[in-house]
Amino acid sequence: QVQLVESGGGLVQAGGSLRLSCAASGRSPSTYNMGWFRQAPGQEREFVAAIMWRYGSTAYADSVKGRFTISRDNAKNTEFLQMNSLKPEDTAVYYCAANSGGGMYSDPRAYDYWGQGTQVTVSS
């Protein structure tokens, strides 16, 4: 079992920055691939970014590429999502997720564990 706890969400003006954190604990959390997803009101959950634990490779949705950066601190079992140049369209609940390597990294159905989410609101 893996437990995930997000933090760092809040209110920010367009063009501003936020850093989200995801602390993982439980059974070998460092061996799990990690992803960030978001869900706006009335919308389906969508992929934002992912990082693979074995190789450190990363992937981003086209809508955030160049603005967001995913990173990890293996010693602390913590993942981060640095969000710069935020837009009102980025407003959503952001979820940290973990899987054991199966399925497509961009598909939320492939993930086994989820945090409770943290609200990000970007005002214009």
What features would you highlight for this structure?
7-stranded mixed beta sheet, 11 strands, 4-stranded antiparallel beta sheet, 124 residues, globular, mainly beta, 0% helix, single chain
Protein architecture, described:
It is a single chain. By secondary structure, the protein is mainly beta. Helix content is 0%, strand content 51%. The chain is built from no helices and 11 strands. The strands form 2 sheets. Strands 2, 4, 5, 6, 9, 10 and 11 form a 7-stranded mixed beta sheet that branches. A hairpin with a 6-residue loop joins strand 5 (46-51) and strand 6 (58-60). It is globular and about 40 Å long.
Q: What's the number of extended β-strand segments?
A: 11
| Poorly predicted runs of 5 or more residues | none
SS class: mainly beta
Annotation field: number of helices: 0
Largest sheet: 7 strands, mixed
Nearest-integer average pLDDT: 92
**Structural Rg:** 13 Å
Distance between the termini: 40 Å
The geometry reads as: globular
Order of helices and strands: EEEEEEEEEEE
Residues in helices, as a percent range: under 10%
Estimate the strand proportion: over 45%
Outline of the structure:
The chain has 124 residues and is an all-beta fold.
